[in-house]
Amino acid sequence: MPVLKGKELRIVGFLCNWCSYGGADTAGVGRFNQPTDLRIIRVPCSGRIDPLFIMKTLLNGADGVLVSGCHPRDCHYAEGNFYARRRLEVLHRFLPILGIEPGRFEYTWVSASEGQRWQQVVTRFTEQIHKLGPAPKIAGPAASETLRQMEAAL
Amino acid sequence: MKYQQELKDSIRKALPGLDVVIAWSAGYDPLHATPHFIRREEDIDRLEIGPFSVHNLATYLPGLRGKKVGIVVKGCDSRSVIELLQENLINREEVTIFGFPCTGVVDQTKIRKALGHTGKVDFCQIASQTVVIGLGGEEHKLRLSKVLADKCFSCQYPNALISDHFVGEKISPSVQTEGDDDLEAFEKMPMDERFAFWQKEMDRCIRCYACRNACPMCVCRDHCLAESRDPHWLSQEDSVRDKWMFQLIHAYHLAGRCTECGECQRACPMDIPLLLLKKKMNKEIKELFQYEAGVDPEATPPLLSFKMEEENINEREW
Fold first, then answer.
1. Please, what is the angle between helix B191-204 and helix B240-253, to 10°?
2. How high does pLDDT run on average in chain A?
3. Inter-chain residue contact A86 with B302, CB threshold 8 Å
4. ipTM
5. Given the DSSP bridges, would you call strands B138-143 and B33-38 parallel, antiparallel or unpaired?
6. What CATH architecture is A9-153?
7. Which residues of chain B have a pLDDT value below 70?
8. Residue B185's domain spans which residues?
9. Are A59 and B198 in contact (CB < 8 Å)?
């Protein structure tokens, strides 16, 4: 969308299939206004999310990562989000050592009926990321640049 | 080392019932020890323990499953053995543990920095807190406290926490620093400086994976994510991003398991401060779950369990 070019940041959302993805759908069906920065990846359960997914997303240039699953005690698979909660909390506390603002990653719980709450979560998280601005990028040559150098050397 | 003879006697007694005993012996020069595999009685005489016994020999244990193995451990190494037992990566009845009171090991990087030269070492003597190193006809005197590994200054467990045979008297930990200065100082830096710091450090990485291979808890061997093509976590590119990502994989796969033996950092040929990441992880695990890895063989690692109501995790209601 050329209108939004330069104004939009790149936010990746990992949503569990049973609650939060449904919640996002509910928000859509209810035609609640939402910022458009978020790109959603649907996963079977918040317990499926390896904290390394989030790490990799951030290192590859995402400005923010949002994870959302079923409320604790409400997991479709009974206990997936309990494990997820521990892993994600550890990740959240670990990020500052790398020089990545912990606010670039948040996790929360949204159920399939909470369309309104989903709108709120997305809006607030997007605001938070916009306040932080674009994420610092890893310097160094991109793949194409490396290839060019290799060719020049040969 | 005071208890060396006692340790040799103890091994000599146990050796007939064992396939191999892993210990240390003198290395290629007086400043280095090397892992020593004792299979026959005459191998025992070459055993040497002391400040150069830096290697964490527990790294060899998972690969020797099915054999009767004896292992000599320092306090920190014993925590790795406990962690391996806890995760059923080794069988308790196959392992015979020899413990001794450790008074600290040296950091070769510190010695190298102090001498500024890594030529042929003629001799090395350690007497009452002073290390005398003969190098190119010259004598260099270093204070032992200047060349001990950082981990030894905050060591809580100088004696093996688990052992079948313990030689010598147990000593009490001589904790000289409270908390961790390195980590605290690092966490005072602003975010952008930290980000730049890691980029600079990771740029030096040569992807040799020595950190992984030396790590006693890295037990995946041929199935490591770093070499997996499906899923393709890391490319073959020599980029900071891939090298940094690998260190994060390492740190995450050790979350709640790392015993801070420091082998990753010791093995690193580029002296990248990898232990900093692991220390931070352990600090957060300890704060969140009051858990320390490698202390209790019966415990469950915190990320493999949960509580319905977590005491230290606040739900983010927004």
1. 100
2. 91
3. yes
4. 0.91
5. unpaired
6. 3-Layer(aba) Sandwich (3.40)
7. 1, 117-118, 175-179, 316-318
8. 179-318
9. no
